[in-house]
Amino acid sequence: MNVTVNREPMEVEEKDPTVRSLLSDKNLPDKSIVVAINGEVVRREAWDDHKLHADDEIEIVHAVAGGSDELIIAGEVFSSRLFLGTGKYDDSETMNDALEASGTEMVTVAIRYMDLDGGRSVLHELDLSKYRLLPNTAGAYTAERAIRMANLAREATGTNWLKLEVIGDESTLWPDTAATIEATKRLTDDGFIVLPYTSPDLVAALRLEEAGAATVMPLASPIGSGQGMPDWSAVHRIAERISVPVVVDAGIGVPSEASLSMELGADAVLVNTAIAKADDPIRMSRAMKLGVEAGRLSRLAGRMPVSAAAIPSSPTKGVPA
User: Fold this and answer.
1) CATH number, residue 205
2) Is the same domain home to 102 and 251?
3) Which end of the chain has fewer CB atoms < 10 Å from its terminal CB, N or C?
4) Is the residue at 70 inside a domain?
5) In this structure, are 56 and 117 located in the same domain?
């Protein structure tokens, strides 16, 4: 059977080949790759059952280190690993200048009732040729409410990408993970690309991946708190186990915390308040960009081994008496 893989013809001799068997035959890694057949992304959980057919056009892509270190979410490529929110800025000019300084390619927008007295939508303030919109369901406290908001967002923005938020506690804005998992399953079945906000809990992250989430977005600390990352090991655990991209969302206050997120294995971070409420949002936006880049480079470089004892940097032989 003849197929095309990454624009090159290939003969597959196996009877009833699947995506999984093709990857195994080519000794390709199981993680950090995306497979699309005839233009449609095949989700990882379907690789065992998705059969290949003659003349299929197969694309296998991954992120590589170096100058083209790209992030892939649901088959879409991003060169920036810093996502920004659009809320809390003093004015639209400051917001746009901050977005520009950050180099971001994806921004979140909230869905709210229209101001009947003539208020402008944030969509009128954004250059939509520069950014992928990521509507969110902020303010939803049930799966049903989040799904309703998601459908309104899709209609209002024309995108099926969604940052899913289902809040479980009003005072901390801590996510309701059970409701988030339920909503993720239903929205994915309805054709949404779901990026769910969740707690820094490994099991919740695994269940969200099983539910079809395009990413998992654990919080560093409560939304808007700027507390940073009190439990840094939680993000590391999730990043080590999850195959879809991990985006640290909420609580980052300064660039060093964004950098730490990346060093721990996160694929991206989403920042809003730390930039919008900084004394100089434009400068902070630039700093966050550099923090994310530094953390990513550090992760790719690999840190030195940790030693319980001091290890001299200079030669120990030949020291003058």
Assistant:
1) 3.20.20.70
2) yes
3) C
4) no
5) no
Task: Provide the CATH number for the domain around residue 8.
Answer: 3.10.20.30
How many separate domains does the chain show?
2
Decide the pairing of beta strands 33-37 and 40-42. antiparallel
Model pTM above 0.85: no
The catalytic residue among 51, 130, 163, 317 is: 163
Clarify whether residues 92 and 127 are in a common domain.
Answer: yes
Mean pLDDT of each 10-residue bin along the chain, 321 residues long: 87 88 79 79 85 90 57 88 90 91 90 50 73 89 93 88 93 92 94 93 94 93 85 89 91 93 93 94 95 91 84 73 66
Full domain range(s) for residue 55 = 2-62
8 within domain boundaries: yes
